[in-house]
Amino acid sequence: MKSRGGEQVSRSTISKEWTLFLCLASFCAGLFLTNRIWTVPESKEITRTTAAEAQKLKLVSEGCDPKFLHQKDVKSVPREIFGEVAETHQAIKTLDNTISNLEMELAAAKAAQEAILAGSPVSETAENGDSFRKRKYLMVIGINTAFSSRKRRDSVRSTWVPRGESRRKMEEEKGIIVRFVIGHSATLGGILDRAIAAEDKKHGDILRLDHVEGYLELSAKTKTYFATAVALWDAEYYVKVDDDVHVNIATLGETLIRHRKKPRVYIGCMKSGPVLAQKGVRYHEPEYWKFGENGNKYFRHATGQLYAISKELASYISINKHVLHKYANEDVSLGSWFIGLDVQYIDDRRLCCGTPPDCEWKARAGNICVASFDWSCSGICRSANRIKEVHRRCGEGENALWKAAF
Question: Model pTM?
Answer without folding.
Answer: 0.71
